[in-house]
Amino acid sequence: MTTVDSSTTFGTIGRGIAVFEDTELVEGTTVWLDTPDAVMDFVERDDVENCIVIARGGTTTFLTPALVAGPRGVLTLQGAPTSHLGIVSREYGIPCIMSVAFSVGETNARGEVVPADGTVVRLDITGAPVGRVLAQNARGAEEVPHAADDEPDAVLVPVDTRGVPGGTAGHEIMLGKMSTGVLNLTDESLIRELTNEEANDLLDYYGWNLWDILAARISEGESGLIPRQEYEVMGTYLQWQHHPRFHRMITDAVGVDGLREIGGRIRNEVGTKLNPLHIWAAGVPSALGRSIALDLGHEKPGDRTEDLKGAMQFTRRLYRGMWNDQGPMFLSGRGYHAPLLGSEWVDRFIADRTPLAKDPQARKDFQRFNGSTQLASFLLHFDCRNGVADTGPYPLPGGGWALVRDHVLNDPGYPWADAVRDLPWSVTLVLFFEGEQQISSSVVDIGTMFTTPSNYLKHLTGYAVYVRERSDSPVSEIRLLREDELAPLAAKAEKGAAQLYPRIAAMSDREKILAGSYVYYTDFVGTVGKAAGIWDDMLAAGFYDFQDSVDRGYGPIVEEGRAMEMLGRFWSAAEGMDHV
């Protein structure tokens, strides 16, 4: 990245949360992007690499073309480092400060203070998590040259409304509150119906678990491209209305042991949507959809108890196969580690490893591939993680560990996937962090890895990349990509995203919300139905016959503007998980 002489005294005009830490300051001119048209116009400029883009929200897809074009830095008025934009800017290595409160700038029609376009600013992320935006000769700026005096604990983090912390400490507290052992996947508990006490214990844990993995990301704010909060609420509502019928249909077709076998496939293949996210999402969002239905007055707490318990057992049986033991259900009960693949895969990865050359360009090229394919996957899946999955850490024989990450790039089941028809189904990236590096990692239940320090790619020592051409390609046909294949495939991913972005931008808000709901609704049980071999039967049974439910839910959720309020209450607090 281009840096500047840090000895020059600039004044602080804004403070926020840095996505990652770096020892160098970055300088560029500001450009405010508040509409998809503004983003598309921006990438046509010939000075993109000299610009610091400013956006309102912390979502990824809104800035897709801008991120691909390679700006010098990113600033947002909303959002947190664990948001999708924070994650992708980290993958690209683009300095990013989120939730910036500017003290100097122009006030727009919405009352937001934003530096005028063309303002020369410096991003100081040396004191992460505090990030500072500096400008020279700015009236009203604080004349403080460095961020060292800022207190990191001034950064706001989500707080569980019950006072329960996140992480392993929170898991232990929640475990202590339970009257049953429902979190353990005992064989006996999988072949019967759950008791009310077990269901209520699981509902309480679901509430905390949702907060633990999603609350920080919920704060990402507005997209500017996709109304994601609205479709998240709508999509989970539709799941509860219809998925229990298909839970039963799949279970009737393959049985309890068949569900365990499907869950177990996660341990034997890569480049698949059978992963921790889809196991979690096969059942947990149904409970959330129930909360939404209750809040809308469409149901009462005692209604459809059988459906709720069935959804819980559906996902518990899949988890039992995934872990292949009778221990805790969630990653939060296993130290946030998910080294799921067998040793034969790890041995193959090690044998196929490409050492990362000391040449900075080699690292930059790999980061581009990682960022471009991940961004294309986010856009294809309407700004959700349905196409991105991490597992690990996998300990390495000589010390250190490896991360395995799938990027699904072309799911032909989506009506808009023709825009990415030239891409393979998926790529799998194996990232090596070898030796005695001081870098720790954790994987949350939706299959996202976070590290300390957050700019983990700085410590990358090697990689291997594999391609799976189709979703049904045999595991034996998953092949290693050569080094010289990475750049062309990254370019294809960028081209696909460039074709898809204006298509999404041209949709009405209703079309976008229903498309995002379609992604949730399809993937969260369809993935298991396809693995069970009964997807065509599910379609014939009316899988997509949900228009009546859309008609009932769309008005109060979207048109009455209740989505954001519900998202805050149900995704970040346990109050939505009403007991049976």
TrEMBL record:
Q: Which Gene3D superfamilies is this protein grouped with? A: Phosphohistidine domain (3.50.30.10)
- Write out the GO MF terms: transferase activity, transferring phosphorus-containing groups
Q: Which residues form the PEP-utilising enzyme mobile domain?
A: 52-105
User: What protein am I looking at?
Assistant: PEP-utilising enzyme, mobile domain
| Organism for this UniProt entry | Rhodococcoides kyotonense
Q: What is the lineage of its organism?
A: Bacteria, Bacillati, Actinomycetota, Actinomycetes, Mycobacteriales
